[in-house]
Specification:
single chain; 690 residues; alpha+beta; 6-stranded mixed sheet; 16 helices; rod-shaped
Length: 690
């Protein structure tokens, strides 16, 4: 039994050594095969293919190598891990190591297996003695053999030599070759990775690599280069549409960058990307792997139409301007703006004067997201905002109400009204002048974003001009001015007045005459115009107004002083513009009784003012002197003739009120009352004659 235990132990040790040997041999064979495979791929990648092994071939090599390794492991390695060594094979291995065995160990194993199954053999004494002899002989022989010596290790040694030799060759190649073989190994191991083929010049950290840009954009392409850089570094690109093929763009080391860093702003020119393209970097015969840049359309937006709705008082019809973003209209105008983009929008807004605080949201159409619209109300700044110079007022554009905004800016240059008149809104509380802007010039741009939230890169700048409703102008024509600066008017007399009034844009509503004593306005004459006057903008007919100032009709008293002026109001609503003429200072004096000559001259001056447009009558000074003859005693006894002269004047002047219905002489009826003053003068003279 002891000999059998010895033999069983030797066979078990032989089985372990056989498994260990087979595993080491399989690994040596696998390693040698893989090294040969990768070395061959490296040679192909570096020297056979100019641009390196193509991607599809890399994938085939990867599949072939993976299948080969899997097949070898399945056939040679997996059985060693999960199956046991046959004892007979282990015994055969031991006998091969010791030729003196001559199948003794195998015979012993076979006899023992037979005895275990055949009871007759166990009862046969001759067979038992033969079995004991064989056991003793095998045990004595096995005792002289070591377990490590039972296997012939020469094949393993040869494979290991081959593997070591290949490793040395690979290291030597890596040291002397300008192209790194380990790069090729990586390209095969990771066929889907972006790994450049081995080159004399190595490209790394290529930016932006594969990317997506917007149409019109430009990017900075850069890379870190190492190795033998003896030739210029170039970027080659080709467009998908075929218009450009392998066009080269030189790359340079930017100032302050690390050594080996090369960059270029791409594409060349100022237009930016127009279509998708591919590119790679090269230096001599070294080049990087091809990268791709896809171009998607950038969102752009333009003004489709501007619909103008003017204030009602202007009388202007609605107007629609297509494909023009510049806005120019009078204050109070509402402009409905419609914009359109090339791709659907998520958001759209107007940005005034490039100020983020002054913006207006536009309403994107739910049925057509490429269109958005909004309402702009044009207004001039208030007087308070003009005085303080604040950057805006309560009506500044706001994003709180989508699609609606009131646009005005106070910080603009201004000009006063025409000479001889002053806009009433331009007078400050202390009597000074306040500049009123005639126009406001602003700019606006359109900002929008696509459905992914990407904003528009470029936007046109449009002009926005708000025109003020200009105030009217009123001035004296040959105003009666005394040397003392104060006109003296008899209580029973009058002075003729000649005015010109006009509104430079939309028309006059009324012209008033005002008299002020001690800061109090006595009366307003509102009948200087027969209703509002309108004319085509910007030329409005000039209104020639003739009237007279009669102290008694304005409730004046002897000795009173005051100021006299005219006020013109235009048709602007709801807050009309007003302008006033220069103020004339006057003093009421005693009636000059019996001095019909002076009163007659005044009456005729009034007549001449009425007839200023009639040269023939204006050239008859002798007729104008006829009332002076009324002072002569001889003719004073002839009241009939005097009355006839007066009546003649009255007849001529009485006819003029009928002509006063005409637009040019519509104001003469007021002057037609002057002959009544002439009658008063005669009545005043009657006591003297009595």
């Amino acid at each position: 039994m002891d000999h059998e235990v010895t033999l069983d132990g030797r066979i078990t040790e032989a089985k372990s050594e056989v498994k260990r040997y087979d595993i080491n041999l399989a690994l040596a064979v696998l390693g040698t095969g893989l090294l040969i495979f990768f070395f061959a791929v490296a040679l192909l990648d570096a020297w056979v293919f100019q641009d390196g092994i193509p991607s599809w071939m890399r994938f085939l090599f990867w599949i072939g190598g993976l299948l080969g390794v899997a097949g070898f492991l399945w056939k040679r390695f997996v059985p060693l891990l999960f199956a046991s060594i046959n004892p007979v094979y282990a015994a055969l291995t031991i006998e091969k190591a010791e030729p003196s065995f001559k199948n003794t160990l195998i015979n012993w194993m076979l006899l023992r297996r037979e005895r275990a199954t055949n009871a007759a053999l166990r009862s046969d004494k001759i067979a038992e003695r033969m079995f004991d002899g064989i056991t003793l002989s095998a045990a004595s022989t096995v005792a002289r053999i070591r377990a490590a010596d039972v296997i012939d290790r020469r094949p393993l040694v040869r494979w290991r030599y081959a593997l070591t030799g290949l490793c040395c060759v690979l290291v030597f190649y890596a040291l002397i070759s300008p192209k790194n073989p380990f790069t090729s190994f990586s390209r095969v191991l990771f066929p889907f990775a972006r790994i450049d083929p081995p080159q004399r010049v190595r490209f790394s950290n290529i930016t932006p690599g594969d990317c997506v840009v917007f149409q019109g954009d430009r990017v900075t392409v850069g890379a870190d280069l190492s190795g033998r850089i003896t030739e210029p570094v170039l970027l080659y690109f080709s467009t998908d549409d075929g218009r450009i093929r392998r066009e080269a763009v030189p790359m340079f080391t930017p100032e302050g960058a690390a050594s080996g860093r090369y960059e270029v702003v791409f594409p060349p020119g100022k237009q930016g990307f127009e279509s998708a393209l591919t590119y790679y970097l090269a230096s001599g015969d070294s080049r990087s792997e091809t990268r791709r840049i896809d171009v998607r359309p950038a969102i752009t937006v333009d003004v489709v139409s501007l619909a103008y709705t003017y204030p009602e008082y202007t009388g202007l019809p609605e107007n629609i301007v297509a494909y023009s973003g510049n806005i120019r209209a009078v204050e109070g105008t509402e402009v409905y703006i419609t914009v359109e983009s090339n791709i659907p929008m998520r958001r759209a807004e107007l940005l005034y004067d490039n100020d983020p605080k002054q913006r207006q949201n536009l309403l994107v159409s739910a049925t057509d997201p490429t269109k958005a619209s909004g309402l702009i109300r044009l207004s001039m700044p208030s007087t308070n905002s003009m005085k303080t110079g604040s950057p805006g007022d309560a009506s500044s554009p706001s994003s709180d109400t989508p699609g609606k905004a009131t646009v005005s800016v106070p910080e603009t240059e201004a000009t006063s009204g025409e000479e001889g008149s002053l806009a009433e809104t331009d007078r400050t509380e202390d009597g000074g002048l306040e500049k009123r802007p005639e126009r406001i010039e602003r700019t606006y741009t359109i900002r929008c974003s696509d459905e992914e939230g990407n904003p528009n890169r470029y936007s046109s700048v449009y002009r926005l001009e708000i025109l003020a409703d200009r105030p009217p102008c009123i001035r004296w024509i040959d105003a009666p001015v005394a040397e003392t600066g104060q006109i003296e008017i008899p209580i029973n007399g009058s002075i003729p007045l000649h005015l010109e009034a006009e509104d430079p844009d939309f028309g006059l509503r009324r012209v008033e005459l005002k008299v002020q004593n001690d800061g109090r306005i006595q009366e307003r004459r509102t009948d200087l115009l027969k209703g509002p006057t309108f004319g085509p903008s910007p030329l409005v007919a000039l209104q020639d107004i003739r009237t007279a100032f009669e102290p008694r009709k304005f409730g004046q008293a002897i000795g009173q002083t005051g100021e006299l002026w005219a006020v013109a109001t235009d048709t602007k609503l709801p807050d009309p513009n007003k302008a006033e003429s220069v103020r004339l200072k006057f003093r009421i004096t005693q009636p000059q009784q019996g001095d019909q000559a002076q009163q007659g001259d005044q009456a005729q001056q009034g007549d001449q003012a009425q007839q200023g447009d009639q040269p023939q009558q204006g050239d008859q000074p002798q007729q104008g002197d006829q009332p002076q003859q009324g002072d002569q005693p001889q003719q004073g006894d002839q009241p009939q003739q005097g009355d006839q002269s007066q009546q003649g004047d009255q007849a001529q002047q009485g006819d003029r009120p009928q002509q006063g219905d005409q637009p040019q002489q519509g104001d003469q009826p007021q002057q037609g009352d002057q002959p009544q003053q002439g009658d008063q003068a005669q009545q005043g003279d009657q006591p003297q004659q009595g």
